[in-house]
Design goal:
Blueprint (H helix, E strand, L loop, with lengths): L15 H12 L13 H14 L3 H17 L3 H17 L6 H14 L3 H17 L3 H17 L3 H14 L4 H14 L3
Helix pairs in contact: 2-3, 3-4, 3-5, 4-5, 5-6, 5-7, 6-7, 7-8, 7-9
């Protein structure tokens, strides 16, 4: 009999749910399946963080800190969000896990956008875009372009915003979830 734990992490839209479903089907009966919907997100993230620290998995620690930041941004708890995102950024930088910088900097840009600090938002969004390009991560480049579009729209630089949203949609055309995020962001920037 096999026992164990599978932790599936990754950016939105890359197929984590599909992998989880396949693992669940292969694992046997339903009573053996652990599914996140039974728990609160914060509890799961704390468990993940604790396990990753225990087994000294810096990449998972940094990813989990990033997820905490995203969670708190979505819950409109900006000070907790930025605290986790800064910690993730410091960890990623000190351990040279630069492929994670795009997601972290994009979320930091969103934090600054929510705070109406457009100069800092733009700086972090551009850094996110550069990191995505440097690592060839189209998904992250598309997401960074989306955030740049939101920033330019907030600054009423509509030509720049349109170019960023168009680039985002092009890069994300094979990822329905992320593409929908771009459509939603664009729609929220349009006059009603």
């Amino acid at each position: 009999e096999h026992t164990g734990i599978a932790q599936i992490t990754g950016a939105a839209g890359v197929g984590k749910t599909v992998v989880a479903a396949q693992l669940a089907q292969q694992s046997g009966t339903e009573d053996q399946i652990f599914w996140h919907s039974c728990y609160h997100a914060e509890d799961l993230l704390h468990q993940s963080l604790s396990l990753a620290e225990k087994i000294n998995q810096t990449e998972i620690v940094a990813s989990t800190l990033t997820y905490f930041g995203k969670l708190y941004l979505n819950q409109n708890i900006p000070e907790q969000a930025i605290s986790y995102l800064r910690e993730a950024s410091e960890l990623v930088t000190s351990h040279k896990l630069t492929f994670l910088l795009s997601a972290i900097n994009r979320l930091i840009a969103l934090y600054h956008l929510q705070q109406h600090n457009y100069e800092e938002a733009q700086r972090f969004a551009e850094q996110a875009n550069e990191a995505a390009i440097a690592h060839g991560i189209d998904l992250e480049e598309g997401a960074a372009q989306r955030v740049l579009g939101q920033i330019y729209a907030a600054l009423e630089e509509l030509d720049k915003a349109k170019k960023c949203f168009d680039r985002s949609m092009k890069l994300l055309q094979t990822n329905p979830y992320e593409l929908q995020q771009t459509h939603d962001a664009l729609a929220s920037c349009l006059p009603t």
